[in-house]
């Protein structure tokens, strides 16, 4: 006879709460079948990457090479790789965009993924977890289900892509491992870079070299933009621009904005600049093979001089406010910007200036999931802008950076408050209201918007922290890092959390703030713990513990004991974990911190369950649930019910365990905590198996498969 839903007297219950019982497998199955999950996103293949330009000339040989290589590789059982190489701004990305729209998207019908690694590169290293996480989300994986580590992300990416014929385009590749990590199991990877990577060729990549335009192709391009141009004059513009498409476009866009001038004026202006490298510009060999880590020795220097000449000439003629913003973009840390940030840095007439930079193709729009439109300079223009910025006075650069750091410090604090609510923080509230940080609309609204903003600004925030550290603004460094915990923890950018934490710890030491150092070391320890590096976490906590006598606020002792308790649980030392969590609980009661009391009571319950002390655990968890309801701490309730379900299951009360797990699933679904819904359904299936209720187990497993399909995951077995 079933041990679920019967008390021997046949009484039926039709509600679900912590101790209520739903009588009978049929009613329980019906209840869980009615569990509301988000609607599954439309199964539309991803279509990422820049669009093809309408004006595109020559490149016949390169397009044919791309097509022929792709056709050959598409017939192979494994993945193929193309390696597209040329100097910066020569048109590599646009060449690939043209090839994608003409042939490649038909060859690889299951979608295309695109990433520009330059946007995610910090100190020469690309955040591959962020890249793979973006790919997984594009393939439909819910944010809560994106793993924290490179290996786990890569494994899930390969699993989801295994049955698909995907096209993956990776721009600004500098090192072979960056490309290898993103190689799909089937389909094609196109690695775009400025220099040949011999390791990729050894892996079987087909090389497609992209040189500057020759005279005929360049002249055709100029005359398409400027139909009445004399052939000889157009050819001279091509020579002065070294056949570089970006330089040609900038020159002709500059002319288009001045209808009273002619192409002869462009030639005269470029010639007067005197830095066009006449007779010395090498328009061939731009994709010379070099060793990885080396710089090209031919082609790029001459072309670069020509591009700088054009950009100098264009900037000499634009409005002062446009030139100011161009120079600001060369000064700002990070890779992208928004109009609000530019205004915070002192820019005026921002929309007009950005429009001028966009129309000249010096700036481009960047795709972003959050609300503000984001911009960045073309990578060639960015290098030029940074050279110009170095010529400005140190005081000017410092003043701009000071404004930028202030903006990000306050914005990140507001975002953190929305994401994690009333959690314990050392830093004071931001000095400006959120509305003061933007001119037209809030930077973000609500928890999801704040989290998306932090994620979109993640690379910029990392650069800002480093810039603040270099300038000795230690208070800003640790405050920014404290605010970023909401992002690091929620989106599992844990490796970044560990790396940046070193700067925050050093900042606390410079400020002689033992309380801050404890907090910073604990954040690093929590990230290391979640990454599975328990020894590193232990080391940070040992240093933090030595400072607790100087820290003052008892909650700092609480966070240290809590992290130590989590490590003890991970090492299967339940009694030690319980002792540590109880110390953390006492620290939070001393303040008192109501949320901290709930969390640490929940942790004590976890430790008791791990030690098989079921009845004690239930007493603690019942008190924790009551405290959470009193404090309005609703997000903790599903977590508490899950642990209660495990405790009840351990005591053999399977009917009550099921009721608690169903309550956890209900509450988590209501709050959008889909990872907790997954855990609750997995536990319910296990409980049904213990009760020998095959139909009920099937109902739970079916709902679990439905959830994982909604989250973009392959439907694994419950044991996964």
Automatic annotation (TrEMBL):
It holds the Pfam family TPR_12. It comes from the Bacteria. InterPro entries: P-loop_NTPase (IPR027417), TPR-like_helical_dom_sf (IPR011990). Transmembrane segments: none annotated. Signal peptide: none annotated. PANTHER family: HTH-TYPE TRANSCRIPTIONAL REGULATOR RV0890C-RELATED, REGULATOR-RELATED. This is Regulator. It comes from Streptomyces violaceoruber.
């Amino acid at each position: 006879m079933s041990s679920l839903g019967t008390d021997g007297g046949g009484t039926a219950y039709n509600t679900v709460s912590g101790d209520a019982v739903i009588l009978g497998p049929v009613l329980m199955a019906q209840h869980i079948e009615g569990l509301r999950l988000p609607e599954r996103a439309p199964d539309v293949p991803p279509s990422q990457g820049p669009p093809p330009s309408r004006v595109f000339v020559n490149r016949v040989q390169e397009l044919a090479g791309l097509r022929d290589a792709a056709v050959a590789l598409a017939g192979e059982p494994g993945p193929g790789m193309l390696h597209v190489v040329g100097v910066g701004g020569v048109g590599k990305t646009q060449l690939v965009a043209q090839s994608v729209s003409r042939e490649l998207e038909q060859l690889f019908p299951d979608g295309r993924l695109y990433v520009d690694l330059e946007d995610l590169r910090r100190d020469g290293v690309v955040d591959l977890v962020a890249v793979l996480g973006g790919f997984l989300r594009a393939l439909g994986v819910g944010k809560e289900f994106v793993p924290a580590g490179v290996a786990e992300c890569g494994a899930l990416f390969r699993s989801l892509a295994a049955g698909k014929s995907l096209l993956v385009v990776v721009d600004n590749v500098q090192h072979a491992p960056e490309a290898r990590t993103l190689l799909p199991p089937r389909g094609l990877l196109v690695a775009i870079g400025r220099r040949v990577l011999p390791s990729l060729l050894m892996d079987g990549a087909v090389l497609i070299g992209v040189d500057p335009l020759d005279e005929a192709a360049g002249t055709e391009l100029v005359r398409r933009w400027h139909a009445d141009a004399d052939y000889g004059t157009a050819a001279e513009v091509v020579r002065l621009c070294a056949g570089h498409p970006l330089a040609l476009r900038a020159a002709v866009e500059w002319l288009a904005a001045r209808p009273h001038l002619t192409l002869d004026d462009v030639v005269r202006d470029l010639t007067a600049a005197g830095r066009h490298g006449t007779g010395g510009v090498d328009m061939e060999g731009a994709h010379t093979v070099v060793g990885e880590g080396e710089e090209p020795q031919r082609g790029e220097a001459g072309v670069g001089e020509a591009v700088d000449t054009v950009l100098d000439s264009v900037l000499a003629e634009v409005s002062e406010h446009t030139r100011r913003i161009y120079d600001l973009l060369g000064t700002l840390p990070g890779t992208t910007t928004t109009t609000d940030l530019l205004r915070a840095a002192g820019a005026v007439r921002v929309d007009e200036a950005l429009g001028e930079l966009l129309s000249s193709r010096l700036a481009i729009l960047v795709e972003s999931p959050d609300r503000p439109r984001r911009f960045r300079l073309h990578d060639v223009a960015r290098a030029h802008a940074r050279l110009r910025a170095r010529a400005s006075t140190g005081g000017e650069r410092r003043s701009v950076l000071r404004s930028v750091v202030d903006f990000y410090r306050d914005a990140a604090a507001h975002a953190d408050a929305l994401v994690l609510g009333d959690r314990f923080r050392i830093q004071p509230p931001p000095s400006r209201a959120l509305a003061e940080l933007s001119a037209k609309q809030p930077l973000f609204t609500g928890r999801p918007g704040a989290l998306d903003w932090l994620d979109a600004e993640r690379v910029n925030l990392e650069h800002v922290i480093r810039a603040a550290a270099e300038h000795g603004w230690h208070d800003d460094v640790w405050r920014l890092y404290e605010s970023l915990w909401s992002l690091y923890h929620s989106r599992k950018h844990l490796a970044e959390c560990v790396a940046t934490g070193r700067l925050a710890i050093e900042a606390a030491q410079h400020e002689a703030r033992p309380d801050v150092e404890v907090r910073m070391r604990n954040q690093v320890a929590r990230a290391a713990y979640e990454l599975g590096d328990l020894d590193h976490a232990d080391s940070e906590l040992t240093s933090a513990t030595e400072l607790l006598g100087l820290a003052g606020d008892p909650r700092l002792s609480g966070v240290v004991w809590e992290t130590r308790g989590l490590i003890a649980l991970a090492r299967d030392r339940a009694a030690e974990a319980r002792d540590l969590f109880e110390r953390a609980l006492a620290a939070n009661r001393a303040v008192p911190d109501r949320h901290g009391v709930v969390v640490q009571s929940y942790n004590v319950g976890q430790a008791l369950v791990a030690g098989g002390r079921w009845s004690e655990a239930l007493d603690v968890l019942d008190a924790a649930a009551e405290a959470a309801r009193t404090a309005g701490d609703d997000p903790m309730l599903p977590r508490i019910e899950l642990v209660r379900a495990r405790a009840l299951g351990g005591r053999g009360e399977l009917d009550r365990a099921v009721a608690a797990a169903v309550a956890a699933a209900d509450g988590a679904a209501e709050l959008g905590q889909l990872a907790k819904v997954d855990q609750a359904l997995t536990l319910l299936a296990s409980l049904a198996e213990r009760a020998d209720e095959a139909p009920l187990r099937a109902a739970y497993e079916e709902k679990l498969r439905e959830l994982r399909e909604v989250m973009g995951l392959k439907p694994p077995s419950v044991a996964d």
